[in-house]
Amino acid sequence: MTLAAAEGPDRAIVAGALVPAELPALPGRVMSADELLVWVRELADRASVWQRYVAHQAGTRHYVSLYRDADVDVWLLCWNLEDDTGWHDHDLSSGAVAVTRGAVRESRPRLGGDPAERVVAEGRAFAFGPDHIHRMGGSVDGSVSIHVYSPPLWRMGQYAIAADGEMRRVSVSYAEELRPLDA
Ligand SMILES: [Fe+2]
Question: How close is the Cα of 23 to the center of ligand 1, in Å?
Fold first, then answer.
């Protein structure tokens, strides 16, 4: 999932808020999904370095770029029940997500069937490869998750699924806020 690194008038979004010394050790290369899962859990445990960036505002998504270099891209996302990324992929990137407060929901589309859905609660984490297509949202108001991607996000695919099941992919920049295309 993913999001913009910019300052907006009604939401404080910080680009690359953290320095490497505040982060778990990075190997200086692209990391696998398994490595990202271990790494994001370590960062989730360091609440003192990211806690100050948590904020929840009704009616607008809040997300912060915690760190970005040539190999990884790290975000803090705040969720309310109304928040929904829509269907998307992460192009070439693997990723890992640690839920640090509340719970988020993750859905994966299934052709000819209902989406596979799960709720990931505080203290849990999951990882995925570049083949993964999902949509995420808040399962509880006031939820928080930390996301790491490697290689860093540049482009992502957003999907619209029509009522008859036809899917269509739109390539978007990582700096665009993900929203449902079929809303
Ligand atoms: Fe995602």
Answer: 21
Mean pLDDT of 119-138: 98
Whole-number pLDDT of residue 49: 96
Distance 139 CA to ligand 1 centre (A): 15
Pairing, β 103-110 against β 113-121: antiparallel
Ligand 1 centroid, distance to 89 Cα (angstroms) = 6
The residue to which tokens 């899917």 are assigned: 167
Sign, CA torsion 46/49/51/53: negative
Rounded to the nearest angstrom, the distance between the alpha carbon of 173 and the centre of ligand 1 is 13
Please give the model's pTM, rounded to 2 decimal places: 0.90
Binning pLDDT at 50, 70 and 90, where does residue 11 land?
very low
Protein residues within 5 Å, CB atom, of ion ligand 1:
1
**Phi-psi region for residue 54, left (φ > 0), alpha (ψ -120 to 50) or beta?**
beta
